[in-house]
Amino acid sequence: VQLVESGGGLVQPGGSLRLSCSISERTGTVGTMAWFRQVPGREREFVAAIGWDLYTGNTRYGDSVRGRFTISGDTAKSTLNLQMNFLKPVDTAVYYCGASVGSLSNTFASRYRYDYWGQGTQVTVSS
Question: What number of helices (H) and strands (E) belong to the chain?
Answer without folding.
Answer: 0, 11
